[in-house]
Amino acid sequence: MESKSISTHGANLHYLEEGQGKTVLFLHGLSASSYMWRSVISQISAKARCIAVDFIGMGESDKPKLDYDTSDQIYFLEAFIDALALSDITLVMYGWASIIGFAYAQKHPEKIAGLVFADPYVRMKKNLQDVPMVFQEISALSKNDPEILRKKYIDENNHLVEKIIRASRMNKLPQEAMDYYSKIYNTKESREIFIRTMLDNPYVNPKSTAIPIIESYAEWLKKTPIRKLMMYVKPGFVGDTDTLNWANKNFSEFTAVNVGAGISFFPELSPEPFAKALLEWL
Length: 282
What we know:
alpha/beta, 12 helices
């Protein structure tokens, strides 16, 4: 797998590339990078041109001074796709990245061949009981003590890696992967970007810049004829049974595939069923 970078808006975006054929662009979740897709790509690249980008400010991409809200990420993703002259793209999105990917697809449907999503933000959940408890807890913590996240996750590298990354992956990551994530979060700058992005999560911050974006593309997703594949696990996280039922009811050209049991980051923890389902759908 080749590690590359390309300059966009004066900053370098890092990405991995392997294979030839139809373009499959992988977008990583929060607290991750293109690295999370390594095992999926190794199984897909025999039949497709696989590209996995590090979002601006994350992984091995540059970290310029930005707000790091959703609009910034969409802006740089647009530039990345234009710089590589990508078209007829199958977007594969995990978690938070689906906000950016769906927004891009709504704006540039002519470039999209298919939408593949896992643990997705397909709409805003209105009932607080449907929102993952961890988001409710972070929201409450940040309201009671605005500096608590800085104290815990920015000043202390080990706390972020152990409490967020290890826990979100259910303690199943091999040491090699933990070492990699420790490396990409070994500066206060990288951890600051993580926290700023987390605090713009629509289920953490009621004034999140992502909320109107989600509300807009949720309506578009109901109407677009673009092919869609949702991969899910049970019980899941954001992409739970409620999300699945809503997508089944509202989407056309829609396929859903159960790829096992789990909660979050299952493309990284269980890449084989994810890659198999993706290959069959492509």
